Amino acid sequence: MLTSVAPGALAAVGTTTDAAATASSPTKPHRAAAHPTSALSPADARFQRLAHDYIEALWRLDPETAVAAGRYEFAGQLNTPDDAQRARALAFAQQWLKRFEAVDGQTLSPASRTDLGQLLNRLRGDVFALTELREFEWNPSNVNVAGQLDLILSTDYAPLPKRLRALSSRLARVPAYYRAGAASLKVPTLEHTQLAIDQAPGVISVIDDIAKAAGEPAAGLSTRERRELTQRLEAARTAVNDYRSALTARLPTLQREGQARSFRLGQALYEKKFGYDIQSAHTAAQMYEKAQAAREALLVRMAQMADQLWTQTQGDAPKPADRFAKIGAVIDKLSARHVKREDFVSEIRAQIPQLERFIATHDLLTMDASKPLIVRETPVYQRGVAGAGIEAPGPYRPQDRTYYNVTPLDGLTDEQAESTLREYNHWILQVLNIHEAVPGHYTQLVHANKSPSLVKALFGNGAMVEGWAVYGERMMLEAGYGDNAPEMWLMYSKWNLRSVTNTVLDYSVHVLGMTEAQALDLLMRQAFQTEREAREKWRRVQLTSVQLTSYFSGYSDIMDLREQRKQTLGDRFKLKDFHEEFLSYGSAPVPVIAELMAEKKAETKPPKATP
Ligand code: ZN
Ligand code: ZN
To answer: How far apart are CA 293 and CA 559, in angstroms?
Structure first.
């Protein structure tokens, strides 16, 4: 399964740990990113100071988020997730909301105004999460210390002894952390309870890794420090195991009809969460309708292409009347064309300059040659779920490089490798590179970094980021990439159908009550996915909500915006200008970019001829 970096994680959780790139660079915790204050108007400068103060206060309130964002001076702290802590977080959000609501957005530059919008949305989303969504009452898998412990251990931000001391201090709070997490649970869902139980061994293995590092000669701890760390590791291990046992003991009750909370979010919470997370011009219900229409249009087109390719791929075989069977048969046949397993990484590496050349010769976008993308095999310790993805440094580590991590197929059996290669066949592998790298995620990031915004790097809009990558695929094909071959359009359509189906699935499951059997049929028979992919998706849709809609929502809003700009500008519409202006606002929500584009146009309109 090749998935891209989760939105938000793209820039916020930069976890680059390449020793050569980082060992010599000291961390500069208070690097004032964003805009040099001197070049700003007084209103902008005031606002940027306020935003900076908020972010610094947020790190003090929430060391977990701070560490995830690369602020390792908070590595030694860990909050206890109890009512008192949540009351503090709520008061904090409400207080900062008041301050930002008092800022007059009309006095700000576009860059600051979009930052303000992101901050207001985030704070309102925080209040919603604490007062209405209340995941701490029903999602036991959020009680998990592994991610940050692992980051602190494996990121070379400081010498090992210093990191071990920070870990020791953090570990001392782990027992209280798990007690509070357990006490906060009311009626959990069965699915998140099972997930938390399944994840416990992974937490233990991170604790083991720390114990191992502490025993190395480079650990540099005193005898007393080492003894203390060993005791704390033991207590943390016990806390994790106790938490797991308590959850396991609840399973039989939760498995009884009506005893667990449903994993389905329900319409009211879903609409609100969609509003904060996606920030679309549409409601979730409207986006679901748009996805259904897009799905039908794709299937009509795919059936036409399957007709075109029928004899070439199937010879004299009779054509099935059922369109899904017909399209599926052609896709199945074409999928046999793919690279050899040992060429997987080198083929991806070879395609990046080809994509860049295509963009240059077709005048689609400016490429920045000074920021080359480095394609590499995913470092071994990071291999796991994702097979390919962009890894960008977080805003506090601008010196780090951007990588395109590709996991080689070494570890797979012949059947597994064949299945992956058929999935990422000759055509889809190109679409994947368009999505992840050029002109997708990587190119978007390079453009966003031209007007660096700490706020957007930390709290950027995931639907814009994913939507741009999905839009890039279509835009490339429209520009003639792949020579308009029906094979390329058919495979692209299958890939695009996945994004569209994600939205249909997420809304259907969380709001409309779609069953597992219906979901698997939607994914396998009606979207041509393998059983493995479909089962993974079913699992993901039970454990997450709304995120799966970000790909299509962002894409759909961008397509609408492009159409609108064509209508408004007529002959003056230039695709390259549209792309560059769109990307110049950073990872802001598409409706906000639309507003700024409309204003800019109003400013630069030639004066009306006097009658
Ligand atoms: Zn993506
Ligand atoms: Zn094969």
So the answer is: 14
